[in-house]
Amino acid sequence: MSVENPRERVLEAAGEIFAEKGFKGATVREIIDRADVNIAAVNYYFRDKERLYIEAVKHVACVDADEHLAWPRGTPAADKLADFIRYHVARLLDPHKPAWHARLMMRELSQPSDACTELVREYIEPKSKILGGILEELLPEGTPRSRRALTAFSIMGQILFYSTHKPIVSLLMGEQDDPYADTKVLADHIVRFTLRALAQPEA
Fold this sequence. Notes:
The model has no long low-confidence stretch (mean pLDDT about 90). α1 packs across α6 (about 100-110) and α5 (about 75-90) packs parallel to α8 (about 145-165). By secondary structure, the chain is mainly α. The chain has two domains: about 5-60, Arc Repressor Mutant, subunit A (Orthogonal Bundle), CATH 1.10.10; about 65-195, Tetracycline Repressor, domain 2 (Orthogonal Bundle). About 70% of the residues lie in helices and about 0% in strands.
């Protein structure tokens, strides 16, 4: 493992093993062996296995701040939405991202723990507020909050579908039409589809 920071090494090793074996199946001994650290590093940085698991899940998702989702005053809402979609497609479908990232997240989402609560509070909710603000500009005045939320879920659902169902999509489409060959093209498709559904000019 080439990461020099011992905390990062533990997080990377823990994430891989938790993705492979789940929280119960993973052992701290296996994690520290893979990270090439001693048990004191886990105790110092994370206190215990449960906190290590929570931080490993957050490490996978909360890798950057929201500076990529800030716009100058006067930016059209359709442009903001296009940027939001393209940003998340690029992150979730990054071909350089280790496969275990998605496996760990799927484990957590299928069997939520305290990690899910912290993930929502610290990462998902702030992104949700950004998307909600964009939709408040795009949707007709007086649109109920519940409808804005469902619209936001539908937008994220498109992105997450391509992230979690990659093997199925690739098998159905085949190599010639593989949508993962160029994620920018895929992001633009989601942008066009969404803006048309919202009766907005394409960005």
